[in-house]
Design a protein that fits this description.
254 residues, mainly alpha, two-stranded antiparallel sheet, 11 helices, 2% strand, elongated
Length: 254
Amino acid sequence: MLERKDAALIAMLALDGPAPRAKVAACLWPATSESQARTNLRQRLFRLRQLAGRDVLVDDGALRLADDVALDIVEAILALEHDADAAAGELLGGHDYGEHEELERWVAAARERWRATRTERLARRAGELEAKQQIAQALSYAQRLVGEEPLLEHGHRRLMRLHYLRGDRAAATATFTQCRKSLRDELGIEPDAETMQLARLIEAGAALTQPRAPARPPGVLRPPRLVGREEPWRCLQASADAAGVVLISGEAGI
């Protein structure tokens, strides 16, 4: 079990990429002198090496994860493709960083990115399965989405539609009732026009239009070849899967 600052250190480098030692040390120990913060960081790195029996982090101009360190956050997001219960829990578990303002801000933002990535993947997978008319499987994703994000109106609409398409109008109506209650109680608003229209169609027992699977763009059908860029592409993909956003900087045209 990692100590909370060790866990934060690894998460920071995994999600944000390499960082100078001084920046990492200042974030983890803002109340100490620069020299003491650097000493604390060296001790952390030594303890991590002992704990893992190998180098987990390396410093080649900037502190980063070793190349062969696998990220469970990436594996968890990928597992959502076939398991609606995957990627559960909060980033960094229940660790509290309230006494360190800068670190707490970073953790809060990272947790929000993690939740947003998971929400997007759940919604996308539910939509893909619905488009394929795999209603029962789509329901499991939609139910989890609404359970985790009760104010996400498009999630309620999808769940209403899926219950109805499965032949359970009572469950579809109950979902709408819960959606309206959540929006009223938490935000003081009514469901939007699209949600109200869907509720009326369900109440009337009308036929619903099945969404079609999105067309695959030409770039996916005939993807460009990557020559000599396998490792950078792997790093980009892992970062995008984990954080949802990747910033690439460098000289224009290269």
